[in-house]
Structure formats: C-alpha cells, structure tokens
Amino acid sequence: MAGSNTALxxxxxxxxxxxxxxxxxxxVTLEVRPGETVALVGPSGAGKSTLLRCINALxxxxxxxxxxxxxxxxxxxxxxxxxxGREVRRLVGxxxxxxxxxxxxxxxxxxxxxxxxxxxxxxxxxxxxxxxLLRRVGMTHRExxxxxxxxxxxxxxxxxxRALAMGPRGLLCDEITSALDPELKHEVLAVLEDLKxxxxxxxxxxxxxxFARRAADRVVVLADGVIVExxxxxxxxxxxxxxxxxxxxxxxxx
Length: 254
Hints:
Blueprint: E1 10-19, E2 22-32, E3 37-41, H1 48-55, E4 63-68, E5 71-73, H2 75-80, H3 83-91, E6 92-95, H4 107-117, H5 123-136, H6 152-164, E7 170-174, H7 182-197, E8 201-205, H8 209-215, E9 218-223, E10 226-232, H9 233-238, H10 243-253
Parallel strand pairs: 3-8, 3-9, 6-7, 7-8
Antiparallel strand pairs: 1-2, 1-4, 4-5, 9-10
Helix pairs in contact: 4-5, 4-6, 5-6, 6-7
C-alpha cells in the first residue's frame, strides 16, 4: 500500500522532447525530493502533461536523463518500452485527467485488475487491498458501481485508488480536477493532501493555484517547454520573479 516504502526521488537532467520539428520540452532540469509535493503550473501547451508522461516512461524523449528512484531512463531506453520503463511505472503511479477507468469493470474490479495481473496477487489479497483503498478515498459505498454510474469526482477517486493499488512510492497527477465542479474538486484534493501527509512523493500538474499554495512544498512554472521559475509555493505565487510567471499568474487570476 502507498507509503509502505521509502519515499521516492525524481531527477531530470537536460530533458528535451520533440514532436517532429516542434520542440515541446527544452533542457528541463528538476529535482523532486523524497516525500515532496511539487505543483507544476503554466500556460496551456507549455509541455506539462508531456513532462509527466516522459517521467512515467509513456512518452520517449530525445535528450537528457530521467531518474526515478534507482532507475534511469535515457532517450534510447525510453523508446524501447523495456524493463526500465516497467520498473519506473511500478515505483510511480499516474492519474490522468480523463480517469481512464475500464468501462466494463466495476470500481473494485478496476482497482484489483493490475495487482492481480501484474503483481500476481490472489483474488482475496487484491480484493482486501482494494476495499481498504476505496475506503481511504471515500468510495466504499460505490465499490460495485461501474464508471458510467459514477460522477466525475467519484471516477477520479477510483482512479487514485487504482494507482495506489500498485504500491507506488510516488504519484504523478495530470490536471485531475480540471473537469470537476468545485465541490468535487475539494473531495479529490482532500485525498491528495492525505497522501502528502503519508509521505508519498507527488508531482502535480494543476491550475488550482489555491491548492498549490496550500499543499505544495514548491511550485515549478513551465512555459514554452522551459522551466522559467521554481521556488517555495508562496514565494512563486505571491512574489514571482520572472516576467513570464507574472504574465501567467495575471491571466489565470484575472
């Protein structure tokens, strides 16, 4: 279960990513310390989601190195979808903006699927763990519901439980509240704050600046594929130093 192992460090060194001629990430260097919560913010199209997918070995990258715990991803290994990528995904889970639940499986079946197939857990062990995780995210009463029967906030909480079922030491969250109304956003963000208290390493792409200010240890501002500012959340959000950060915040905060 989450938090049962030592928290995870994530290190990026000179990471560059291109789609054809278009450069999405340019020389991104970042250290996420074990147990730290880092909010990744910036304008749409800045490369934030792509960065998370590179870290989780879902997208190959062109230059640089990514280290997740003891495992290193290089441009070559990130293209091969080999053992390094699989080991990284065991250490760091990912929760997506659009939930990506299996529509033909109930909530509890979504949570037990990977532990049974990948970790070879017995049905009994996987079910017991899934019930504990669904209880943790406030979804015990909906464990037999199918995704089409769940609200957006409920789907997202099931998706978090599913990610935690693999026992990750870190969690990558990609705009997981962007499609939710304010009350449901609060429910999901409360779950993340609980995970932070557990010492899980969290890297969150978010437009929820209030949450970033309250829960993140640091804020990283990504614009045009480049990190333009990084620092303690209050410092970056209240007293930004970089003109690009100030421009972004003025637009978001009106």
